[in-house]
Write a structure and sequence with these properties.
262 residues; Rossmann fold; 8 helices; 7 strands; 44% helix
Length: 262
């Protein structure tokens, strides 16, 4: 008989990247409420300190660490810091990503390509590698990658971002296939339009009335009738991080308000 306790993260340790706002912030708080101790990273120390304070006020345990996802030399030290603080490492959420800058395929410069790929793909790959080495020694773990609906169906003007997120879906499958025998499950979540800075950056420089018009048009095109909130992603995160999803690996869960079904 299935027990609801299988959704619990009690006694687990999670690392959530890009946790100062948006989906990462909501996930860190959700994991804490589900019982996990949470290490949180973002580029600026004051930002992660603020999230850690929220978790501690709820009675949870938190470790805030300033770290840049695009700098490969940071990853081993980041994993070591988590293990040193909590004596274990069970869950990695690769949420950090750089903004989908607008540029056509004819105008995209190499610098933009390198910036996006370093954070969205290369950083994710090598942080996952560092985490998986520890998880393997400890008998298993969970890796959850945040990709995007853009990685499934590309949007005009965001080709590099879309390519990076499509590659994350394949990285999820590659890691899942190689690590399954080590009891490390690797899955991904592909959000559609969610109210985050990444989404808002698309119209950031437009006049306020145009911003509201675009937001309304996006909401109207979504079958469920609204742009998603970060909290609406957390349930899937907890499912993938917990024992409730014990027979699932290598998969991508698309959460887009029904856009993909028309």
């Amino acid at each position: 008989m299935f027990e609801l306790s299988r959704f619990s993260l009690e006694g687990r340790v999670a690392l959530v990247t890009g946790a100062s706002r948006g989906i990462g912030h909501a996930t860190a708080l959700g994991f804490s409420r589900a019982g996990a101790s949470v290490a949180i990273t973002s580029r600026k120390q004051p930002d992660v300190d603020a999230v850690a304070d929220e978790i501690r006020r709820m009675g949870g345990r938190a470790l805030p660490i300033a770290s840049h996802g695009g700098r490969m030399e940071n990853h081993a030290a980041l994993v070591d810091a988590v293990v040193k603080e909590f004596d274990r490492f069970d869950i990695l959420v690769n949420n950090a990503a750089t903004s989908p800058a607008m540029a056509s395929v004819l105008d995209t410069e190499e610098r933009l390509w390198d910036t996006i790929m370093n954070v969205n793909l290369k950083g994710l790959y090598f942080l996952s590698q560092a985490a998986a080495k520890v998880m393997k020694k400890n008998g298993g773990g969970r890796i959850i990658n945040v990709t995007s609906s853009d990685g499934i169906k590309a949007s005009q003007g965001r080709s590099v971002y879309a390519i990076s997120k499509a590659a994350v879906i394949m990285a999820t499958k590659a890691f899942a296939g190689e690590l399954a025998r080590d009891n490390i499950r690797v899955n991904a979540i592909a959000p559609g339009a969610v109210d985050t800075r990444l989404l808002n950056n698309i119209w950031l420089n437009l006049p306020e009335d145009q911003q509201e018009t675009i937001r309304s048009q996006i909401a109207e095109a979504i079958p469920l009738g609204h742009i998603g909130a970060p909290d609406e992603i957390v349930g899937a995160m907890i499912y993938l991080a917990s024992d409730a999803s014990s027979y699932l690996t290598g998969q991508t869960i698309l959460i887009d308000g029904g856009v993909s079904v028309g």
